[in-house]
Design brief:
By secondary structure, the chain is α/β, with parallel strands linked by helices. Helices cover 35% and strands 19% of the residues. The chain has a five-stranded mixed beta sheet with strand order 1-4-2-3-5. A five-stranded mixed beta barrel has the order 11-14-13-12-15, surrounded by four helices.
Length: 501
Amino acid sequence: MFATKQFNDPAAALAYVTEIYTAHTKLLRDAFKQFSTGQMPPTRTRACYPFVRITTARATHVDARMSFGFVAGPGVYQTTLTRPDLFPQYLTHQFQLLRDNHDVPLEVGVSDQPIPVHFAFADGIHVEGDLDPDHLRHLPDLFDLPDLAAMDDRIVNGTYDSGCVPDAPLPLSLFTASRVDYSLHRLRHYTATGPHQFQRYVLFTNYAFYVDEFVRLGHRMMESTDDADERAYRQQYVSFVEPGNVTTWNANLDTPPPGQQTATAGIAPARQPQMPAYHLQRADGSGITLVNIGVGPSNAKTITDHIAVLRPNGWIMLGHCAGLSAAQRMGDYVLAHAYVRDDHVLDDDLPLWVPIPALAEVQLALQEAVAGITQLEGYDLKRIMRTGTVASVDDRNWELRDHRIPLLRFNQSRAIALDMESATVAANGFRFRVPYGTLLCVSDKPLHGEIKLPGMANSFYEQRVEQHLRIGIKALELLRNNGMERLHSRKLRSYGEPAFR
């Protein structure tokens, strides 16, 4: 039905991708609708993802400052694609870079990778929900179901071996279409907001206090103000979205954003999701999303595994930590420049011998944000902030072990702070080629007799959370203003990388 076509115009290539994807997912939805009403189709219904492919016979010669947008050398490169409605700007940009850097046509057609029937429903419909046992038994015979073997992370982990399949194209993207679809559905489950709500700059936190402050700030940003400077600042954001896709629109806008009149208000979930997400949105998607990942490296890995498919421009960890140095005070900031990975959750995906470098662009933005919000500069800034190594562990009660072992490791690594999530967030940022950074706040000093007790903690939270959150938001705004090309460091790319960012 859809022949493979060549395109020199990225917009035309995307339009054909959309046409193929729309037709094939509709085929699945229509067949499933008949099946769910009791009609048993005589044959299996199969639909496949669209693909984009380039073929180049020349060595790659591009601007050495670039970190993505080109293939490593001569060959055939291909990837499957999904949800072109969700990624129009991203895909158009990747297509344009391929055209600019290689001057070869983009080939678009139908792949041989089946679309699981679950993923044909973009809104996360649970297709088995209303089926009787007889229909459930026949579901795998009539439709393709999600296949974990087709959605692993070998490409991002650098373990993909194209030689296993003779004449197979080389990867053009870090993620296949089914891997992306899997994460899009998981995001809705974990955060109670749709993937289309997520913005390209992300804050992670491990405390609900930051959520409360972000919600207060989000609602305040949507309120009308007569202050000209404040109004101009607030107008950059069009809406604030909470779990359940509950949306508050900005009253400062002279012209309502497209879609406001037809958008639904959303419904708050009956109970909070595992990792709720909140979105301070800009019209172009370059706003700020905050996710409360809770406690522990497993949560940190889970949510970053899935947000990574949205190809964010950067993410930053804001949270509390144990100060390990006697010179630190409660409320001091720690800007991580290295990590001790005692979290272990990524050991099989990213070996411990792989270094996780600090990214200058993110480090400078965080330092500038701390200076700007606290009004301290130069040598005075050292009174409240220290740059150093952060250790992340997988045991919240590490203090109850024999102190001699952890103290020796912390001393040898020069660690000055300890938490449970930062190294995981940074390591997954490195793994998924998403710029990352960490700014923590010292909330206790267990090695020095200052443990986290309710009275002390409540006073600390009241004093520091609001300032810390403002610093994180300021840092992401600085990164956005500096531009995506400067942010996406070559440190994150290997010598045989897929072209897509």
